[in-house]
Specification:
2 copies of one chain form a homodimer.
Chain A lengths: L2 E5 L8 H11 L5 E6 L1 H10 L8 E5 L10 H6 L5 H10 L5 E4 L3 H11 L10 E7 L4 E5 L9 H20 L5 E4 L10 H12 L4 E5 L11 E3 L2 H25 L4 H20 L8 E4 L4 E4 L6 H16 L2 H14 L1
Parallel strand pairs in A: 1-2, 1-4, 2-3, 4-11, 6-9, 7-8, 7-9
Antiparallel strand pairs in A: 5-6, 5-10, 10-11
């Protein structure tokens, strides 16, 4: 039986919401869940939320855990027995095929690259998110694993994104675009201009540059960018959406007509929020390491944890790492 | 009398909306407007919109104009008599102190740098926007003038931004932040890590890194970034806002309750839109060249043109270029 190592200690609402998410998944799945964290706390919480007994459940004790405030040095050198490290080691040792954590993204990424190591031929693992657009979904990568990139890295991101798109979103020959600041090949920075040339010469379905404001239109299936730009773009989009929601909440409750209006729109808002919800896939996916690593948002609650676990499961079943390794070997030898 | 050279041919709704914007400003101002564009077309449009006669108005014929589709080569080498170039030459020759265009941003920037030249001591002019936040306004620069930057450029952006903030937004010792992908000084790319060190050693009020999702919270008065990242961030924010508005429009008109709800919320939406409206300042400001250059959004209508002209006027009155030159001399000799 395949297994997922779940970091029970990661996230703003850990361990309670994490275990509630696990509860949603465990009964209807043929996958084993390894709950990694402080054993006593896990047992107490399982009881509290009336988890029930399942044969496909196991607790793996991890005495330490990484917080959101821990610095790079802390989570690299310190805390060798953190739930993140122990979960990753379970994947490395073949006791689990994937891990999910809603904990410190930096800590998961850095430790995953170190413990699981890049796949053969992969120069830089990259963090991918599934971005909701007007037409459907666009995969954006890298959104934070590599702050400084070279053109050949972005080329590999395009290849990894294509494999992920084909297996998880579905669809052959996905359209690949490069994030830039103008549509012409001459627009952009040194990195994008050079990458544009490389992507144009491959047999990938490269459709050219996209700009920040066209990202939401869904013109491309995959958008590649360096991890610095991708991270800023993703966070600006998140911040903008939150900003608007908080304006609605604060501005529209002072006036009785607005209050009624909001009430009437409630179902619409709910659907809209779902449409634009980044938690549909439960997190970001670290592509290019030996094993499946899915990183949930720190604010993940039950539903996001559940979706993250389901994404991890689908990725395990689709054998994403093997397929990326094969595809990279093909294109690098072409 | 001070004068603004107005590019009548620039923008998606030129010349009609541009001249309507001019009409809103002309009667109540002590500034001269030089209408730059195809003379016959301008005269015909003035008549059509019943502009009236004003002594502080003059038409300057420009036979050519740059379109949004023109490429870099086109607007650099071709079209020497474009309205953009002629408007900039009026500033260079001292016949106007500032220019406003809602035309091709790239064409205005490139030609402005070439015709007006950078101020003494300025290594790279930068494009700034006033970003509406939950607390007020944050100036973000560079949003597109320099795709590749060095740390000393970002330092100068901070200095230019401070002068602009003090004069136009108001307030001494503005808080300056660096756009990055983590709050720690160790987070970011090579450029931001190096810039962090430099900014920490100056007497600017440097408060550290901000991330994409905190931009809207208004924690800083000025956010500096390279022109590539800044452009992507700005456009993602614009795209996100448009995306939400278009969802409202499309999703909430199919159901009668939603329709009524929308109607009740109308005044609230209007106020919210105004709060988040990027057209309040009428455009982006090119800081660091010898003269005032304000670039409106291509989709500018009457109100945005009016606001752009008023921003141009305020910048002329505040003598921004002289003050930037003085401040740069001070900090470079410190």
């Amino acid at each position: 039986m395949k297994a997922i190592a779940l970091d029970v200690m990661g996230g703003d609402f850990a361990p309670c919401e994490v275990l509630k998410g696990a509860k949603e998944v465990i009964s209807s799945t043929d996958i084993k869940l390894l709950l990694v964290g402080q054993e006593r706390l896990i047992k107490k919480t399982l009881e509290k939320i009336k988890f029930g007994n399942y044969s496909n459940l196991e607790i793996v004790n991890a005495p330490e855990f990484v917080t959101m405030k821990d610095s790079l040095v802390n989570y690299l050198r310190g805390k060798p027995n953190s739930s993140i490290r122990i979960a990753l080691n379970l994947v490395k040792d073949g006791l689990a095929q994937g891990m999910f954590s809603a904990g410190n993204t930096g800590a998961v990424m850095v430790n995953a690259k170190f413990i699981l190591e890049p796949l053969k031929g992969i120069k830089r693992p990259a963090l991918a998110v599934v971005f909701p657009t007007q037409k459907g979904e666009t995969i954006v990568l890298d959104v934070g694993a590599n702050a400084d990139c070279r053109p050949e890295h972005l080329y590999q991101f395009a290849v990894m994104g294509s494999v992920f798109f084909k297996e998880i979103i579905g669809g052959d020959n996905p359209k690949i675009a490069l994030m830039s600041i103008g549509e012409e090949s001459s627009k952009g920075n040194r990195l994008t201009k050079e990458t544009f040339k490389i992507l144009s010469q491959t047999d990938l379905n490269f459709i050219g540059n996209v700009e920040g404001h066209t990202l939401h239109k869904g013109v491309a299936d995959i958008v590649v960018t360096d991890g610095f730009t991708g991270n800023v773009a993703l966070k600006v989009a998140e911040g903008m959406a939150e900003n608007l929601y908080s304006h609605f909440k604060n501005d529209f409750t002072k006036n009785i007509l607005h209050k009624i209006g909001l009430l009437l729109l409630k179902s619409g808002f709910k659907r809209l929020k779902k449409k634009l919800d980044y938690s549909e896939y439960g997190g970001a996916i670290l592509l290019g390491v030996r094993g499946i690593v899915v990183i949930g948002h720190g604010r993940s609650k039950t539903k996001a944890i559940k979706n993250g676990l389901l994404t991890t499961k689908r990725m395990i079943e689709s054998k994403i790492p093997e397929k990326i390794e094969n595809r990279i070997a093909e294109v690098m030898n072409a």
